[in-house]
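Feature request, filed as a ticket because there's no other form

It would be nice if the structure record came with a short human-readable summary line next to the tokens. Right now we just get the raw output. Example of a typical job, pasted below so the devs can see what we mean:
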Amino acid sequence: MKKTLLVLVAFTMLLVMVTSAQAALVMKYDLSGLGAGLGQTTVWDEQILTTVDATSNYAAGIFPGAGFVDVGDLKMGTLNYLGNPLSGAQNQDLNGSWELTGRWSDLTGTMTAITPTASGTLFNFIYTSGTAKLFADPTVNANFGAGIGSNDDTASTFTDGTELASIKLLSGVGSLFVPFDGSAATGSTFTKWDILSVPAGYWLDPTGFDLKSSLEASGWVDVNTIVSSNVTITGTGPGSQILSRNQGHASYNVPEPASMLLFGMGMLGLGATKLRRKKVN
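Raw output as currently delivered:
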């Protein structure tokens, strides 16, 4: 019994180690096939989202329990490594001769709570399903328009170029605080996405190994954003909308090989203990 408890404790510790060992994946892009002069980036572990325009459409109106469908566009501004933007060499960041853009049109969710306070109203919501795509384009399109929300943008400028990734929502939460005095709204979102597919030859590790199979088998991406400019809420009844412009970052992840080895060792240890107990009995 004591041995079994000891193994179970050790197994639990291994699970904690596996969970805590997840880290942003260090990688690079090889964009040689997209255009003349485009080659490999240096290694990076984070993408900085300069702008995320989103329009949440509430068919039945905005109230606790109401569902919405979100349409949005994003543009990434830099690639970061260990918190520092890449710079100083051609095509190492996204402010030169190429860009990364993305778009989603079926992101669904629910307004979970609307809480009035002395200074404003707090909206809380969850995301439940949706898909999105990331594109790399060797030419830089015009910036987002002057307004906010995806209604301000042209879908064709965020879905051109070569598809770099297709992703599916795993989970997401968000909040939005709108002050009564008319000052700028604040808010944030956190979403986690499963990587469904990436093309061969574009996602490389620091040694040049193609990460396609690893990303598709077990990769995911965490996306965090905060409100970067004002929010527009149009009505509360049927057909109402919430438009916002955010900025944030995206980190790509896969389980570390060492963590998977620890997990496997823990499973083997647990199995061996059960086998010994059967022999004794």
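Something like this underneath would help us a lot:
The two ends are 13 Å apart (CA to CA).
The chain is about 20% helix and 45% strand.
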